[in-house]
Amino acid sequence: MCGIAGTSERAPSSEMEAKVKKMLEILGHRGPDACGIHSEEKVSMGNTLLKITGDMPQPLRGEYGTLVLNGEIYNFREIAKNLGLRTLSDTETLLRLIETERGNRTENSGEKPGKEPGTDPETPGLNAVSAALSQVNGDYALAYLSGDELVLARDPLGVKPLFCSLREGGEMGEGEEREDIEEAGEKDLGPELFFASEKKALRAFGVNPFPLPPGTVLSFNLKTGKTREKSLKIQFPTLRISDELEASAALRKALEKAVSLRLTPGCGIAFSGGIDSAVVAALAGKIKRGIRLYAVGLPDSHDLAQAEFAARALGLEASLVTHVLSPEEIEAAVPHVIRAVESTDPMKISIGLPLYIIAKHAREDGVKVLLTGQGSDELLAGYRRHETFLEAGREVLDREIYLDLCKISELNLERDDMVTMASGVELRVPFLDPGVVKVGLAISPELKVRKTAGAYSRKHILRKAAEALLSPELALKEKKAMQYGTGVQKVLDKLARDAGFSRKEGNHIEKYLTRVAGVNEILH
């Protein structure tokens, strides 16, 4: 896990490199262990590293190109073995895989290794990266530079963030006026591309970024600015699992593998005691003893009580680390969370606050990786609205679950990544493992929301899959949303009212957060 940034523009290499250096300084919290930059005539890009898997410095150079990677490739050992590569680095493995695909295409097409791939209409870098990533189980955002072709890519669900600003050759960027540019003596606009792991690194240079859509592999020609894309987005299933026993067994098996792949020495679990985090903890506990479970909440809050109950039920009470929140601690954390997520949206802040504090205390314990139950509600129908969708028809619930997954990055994952990485902690999401997602989407919708005697059981199939792992009381327990379960929402409401913002006038929490952002000069 780390931060990546880069630029290609009409500027001297030294100027581009200075910009990348500044962007990496802004992203320093994402990777305190190392920093590196690679520059060529038309482009500069770099990486700030948080060491988790291996000890390979970036940018990493190969025969055909140079790679910077933010994220983790969980099946890199299997890939490395198939390539005959001995390494402890997932970055080195991914580069070798891309270069192998690139070399195969060069050999098959008769292209010489020295030929600039950006001049080839087949965009071999794009083809190689997309072919390599189709073999990968991982959460990633990356940039691969080969000749005049710069390829950006992001994992299918957008677990890892990547933001861009793009101007193709001869076109004006958003907000630019032709007269302004001509007055500045820049009549001939060239292609321009900025990218970074967080928006704040781009906004420092007046750039208005947009997220690279999840599952997108984008090729940018450094000379012409022309772009081409390939997609690795999740696909709607063609085969379905309708038998409950078959579905629960397949889901449990997929989750076992997903958790196993994501465990690393010294990792922990963000633990509320709900079924999602309880399943992750139960599976992790079977593989790794002593893994720490982190829970936060106000005194007598639902989440602290539930976490303590769940830890006892799992036999993991000795591993539970609880932190009792105070209104003062929450108030002090507010500006840091606003800065991390770059927003004053009350929902983002109220959910981000407890996760930010969990990550902060986990990092103080030396923990660099936290597993979480995020994604279960979207994949397995855990929200109350899913009951309504089922009433409208199984095909409606099917479609809405798929759309929930398509939107999960923008609504949840980018926020969660940024609040944990603010403390240099990587968040891993087993429920969004490709194998789990494939099984989850294939499970028939009526196995996800079960209606019996007028009552609904959401995430029904997960509860069946968890029967061998959890006590019945724990498996059937309904959870509260984090902002309510921890008591954070109640504190934000009081802080806003104490600051003079009335509930009756509406949006009182957002007004309070906007004031905090202004006083602390955030988001300018």
Question: Can you give a write-up of this model?
Answer:
With 524 residues, the chain is of the alpha+beta class. 44% of the residues lie in helices and 18% in strands. The chain contains 20 helices and 19 strands. It has helices at 13-26, 76-83, 90-109, 124-133, 178-183, 199-203, 244-262, 275-287, 302-314, 327-341, 346-364, 376-380, 385-392, 394-421, 434-442, 460-465, 472-475, 482-485, 488-498, 508-519, and strands spanning 2-8, 34-39, 44-49, 60-61, 66-73, 138-146, 149-154, 163-167, 192-196, 210-211, 216-221, 227-231, 268-270, 292-297, 320-324, 369-371, 426-428, 450-452, 455-457. Helix 10 packs across helix 11 (346-364). The radius of gyration is 24 Å and the shape is globular. The two termini are 27 Å apart. Residues 112-119 and 170-187 have low confidence and may be disordered.
